[in-house]
Amino acid sequence: MSKYLDPKVDLTFKKVFGEHKNLVISLLNSLLPLPKNHIIESIEYLSPEQIPENPGKKYSIVDVKCKDNYDRYFIVEMQTYWNSAYFYRTLYNVTKLYSSQLETAEQFDQLHNVYALSIVDVNKIPEFKDYDEYIQTYFITNNNHIEDKKDAIVMSFVDIRKYKPITHGEKLLKDLWLQFFTQINEATEIVDQAMLNNKDISQALEILKRSAYTDAEIAYYEKSRLNQITERSALKVEREVGREEGRLEGRMEGRKEGKEEGRLEEKIDNIKALMKNMNLDFDTVVKVLNIPKDYIEKLRSFINE
After folding, report:
1. For 151-181, what is each residue's pLDDT tens digit?
2. Which residue has the higher pLDDT, 289 or 233?
3. 20 to 30 A Cα–Cα from 197, which one of 36, 56, 100, 287?
4. How is residue 169 annotated by DSSP?
5. According to the model, what pLDDT value does residue 202 have?
6. For residue 73, which phi and psi values (nearest 5 degrees)?
7. Cα–Cα–Cα angle for 273, 279, 282, nearest 5°?
8. What does the pLDDT read at residue 234?
9. 234/96 Cα distance (integer angstroms)
10. N-to-C CA span, the chain
């Protein structure tokens, strides 16, 4: 039986960072671009209920929301599913939280800064595919003077799959937290001594020990993990089928014009193989791709040849 649980699952992430103020303070101070003379010293947890879920996506909820000693607001999320709407959903959440302060503030200059920190565990993020850095941070900037950055609203996305672990030398707290997310899971047997030597990381590891959870919590944890795997598998199929949609349209057009007949036949065979390997029948493919009715019979004739 495994010693630790995975910190990237909803239950464990909230247990570590939603119930232990010192740990979320440590995480935020280490990963966010905060002014050195304004690091977080204390926080109070706020209810995340006012920020809605991304419709239909179970793992896009706000995990932790808090306010610090400078009255700055923070949204902290663990994201294991990504689609093109997630970036804009994050933007919506921070701007909503920023503007909602008008209910108590009397003037605009009394509004406090809002930060969003998203820990992202996704194989490929289209929006960041051309960037090598594992942290992408967005400020309000002056296009003519990029150095003029306003931190009224800040969004930081940490792509932990791009992080390259440090194997020697002194490790910063940032590195230790990233190791925590990338190296600790149910298969972990040996933990880096540097993590054990840090009081915050060591405390977080204790919280993740399987023995600290009730049978009911373990059952919920296992269900959450299964849901994550199912969600990712569905996304993979959706992307694979989506890629074939573009290829199919091109092949159908080429068939209609009588061009590259031999190559087209070969490509249709590849489509048949894809349907077989993915265990999808023709009607399922048509439904997933939302193919127009006037194309269905043409496509069926290609596939059935």
Report:
1. 899 999 999 999 988 776 678 999 999 999 9
2. 233
3. 36
4. S
5. 97
6. -105, 145
7. 75
8. 59
9. 30
10. 52
